Q: What sequence folds into this?
């Protein structure tokens, strides 16, 4: 393929309102108004990315569209991104294109799933990514715009269109945007990117295809309950929400999942002596079920097992549970179950990056 | 569709079986993968989970068309309804 075929096509419109209508008609939007990606606006974000606009980052499925920096920046303009957001957007696109994420299959499946972007390190402050009350939105601009830029790339470069190539039976609100910073300062545990092999001073994005968040209520410890007993009750509640009989994690098994703990809940686990790894191991135990019980939910298992004492685990590795500390202080944490399918079985991908803009960006 | 495309790329006769609800997606994938004319036969939707008896009925109903498509005969062209 030569360079010309990679270049974005220019459309013409009388004014901004007409441009937006044209983009809606062409199926280039998420259904909401966008900012018109004019040459000047796109060039400004290319400059902020610190990369050559023609740089080819890969192909995005299921349309196998060439994913150049310029095209990603056009999506970022449409999404309302600021120059400061670009390092996160580019890093997240690199993660989207990592074959282990199985984006083609995630986009095409009938399951309602979207890549959730978890942001760690100094980039959170430099790019303004929120991690506290209401961080998943609506409201926080960087979270909203960065996630929307990815979705518009998945639509325009990856070709994900409802009922044609994105076969999600219903979809979910997080498919518009899903970006969350980790509240590293509010957590007694090492942050997620450190658990996944980065240095604490690194900035990193971790992407994993997930469902919409499920709220998990946890009432504070009772007078007759030790810290250890309360922590066990919290873990049992999270496990039940992750692996209920309608959850793919319970039925298809073997995928990843995200647990967004609020600062109170992670403090309780820490006081009771749990670390990321040991808490994940306990969740793995609590989400392993006797085969005989699983036959109730999976007809294909019936009458085919020799060993009725066998047990089936929702998670094959404690590292497949991604703990992130986020949200306000209170009663609620959240879990994000996953699809558990695709060639790699719904894995997470982490990409570290330099969060500082390469130069001052003219207004 | 992608399995069929992978087989066809290896020079093997291939026909993709697609249920009616996934017809548009099949056209999309075939075009995106550069094989818009890969033979395909459209089956009634749904097939999955409808039981062995129904699978047998559908197989008997469509076997000849599938064989014909495999040997270069008629199939359901892209975009047809």
A:
């Amino acid at each position: 393929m030569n360079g010309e075929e990679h270049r974005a096509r220019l459309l013409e419109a009388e004014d901004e309102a007409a441009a937006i209508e044209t983009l809606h008609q062409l199926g280039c939007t998420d259904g909401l108004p966008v900012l018109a990606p004019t040459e000047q606006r796109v060039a400004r974000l290319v400059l902020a990315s610190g990369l050559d606009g023609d740089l080819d980052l890969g192909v995005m499925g299921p349309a196998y569209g060439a994913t150049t920096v310029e095209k990603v920046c056009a999506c970022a303009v449409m999404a309302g991104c600021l120059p400061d957001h670009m390092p996160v957007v580019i890093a997240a696109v690199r993660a989207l294109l990592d074959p282990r994420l199985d984006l083609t299959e995630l986009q095409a499946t009938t399951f309602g799933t979207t890549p959730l972007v978890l942001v760690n390190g100094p980039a959170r402050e430099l790019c303004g990514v929120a991690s506290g009350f209401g961080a998943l939105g609506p409201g926080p601009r960087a979270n909203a715009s960065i996630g929307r830029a990815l979705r518009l790339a998945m639509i325009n470069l990856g070709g994900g269109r409802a009922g044609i190539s994105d076969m999600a039976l219903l979809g979910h609100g997080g498919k518009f945007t899903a970006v969350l910073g980790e509240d590293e300062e509010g957590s007694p545990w090492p942050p997620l990117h450190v658990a996944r092999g980065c240095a604490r001073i690194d900035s990193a994005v971790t992407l994993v295809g997930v469902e919409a968040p499920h709220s998990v209520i946890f009432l504070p410890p009772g007078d007759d309950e030790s810290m250890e007993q309360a922590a066990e009750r919290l873990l049992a509640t999270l496990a039940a929400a992750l692996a209920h009989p309608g959850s793919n994690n319970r039925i298809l098994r073997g995928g990843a999942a995200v647990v967004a703990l609020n600062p109170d809940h992670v403090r309780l686990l820490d006081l009771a002596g749990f670390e990321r790894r040991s808490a994940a191991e306990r969740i793995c135990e609590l989400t392993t079920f006797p085969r005989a019980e699983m036959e109730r939910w999976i007809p294909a298992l019936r009458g085919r097992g020799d060993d009725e004492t066998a047990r089936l685990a929702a998670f094959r590795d404690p590292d497949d549970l991604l703990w992130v500390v986020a949200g306000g202080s209170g009663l609620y944490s959240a879990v994000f179950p996953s699809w558990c399918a695709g060639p790699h079985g719904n894995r997470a991908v982490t990409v570290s990056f330099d969060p500082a803009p390469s130069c001052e960006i003219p207004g | 569709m992608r399995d069929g495309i992978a087989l066809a790329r290896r020079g093997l006769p291939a026909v993709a079986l697609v249920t009616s609800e996934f017809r548009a997606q099949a056209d999309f994938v075939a075009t995106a993968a550069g094989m818009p004319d890969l033979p395909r036969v459209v089956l009634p939707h749904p097939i999955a989970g409808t039981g062995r008896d129904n699978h047998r009925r559908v197989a008997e109903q469509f076997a000849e068309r599938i064989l014909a498509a495999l040997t270069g005969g008629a199939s359901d062209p892209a975009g047809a309804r």
Remarks:
- The radius of gyration of chain B is 12 Å.
- Helices of chain B lie at 2-9, 23-32, 52-70.
- Chain B touches chain A at residues 22, 24-25, 28-29, 32-33 (CB under 8 Å).
- Chain B has a mean pLDDT of 89.
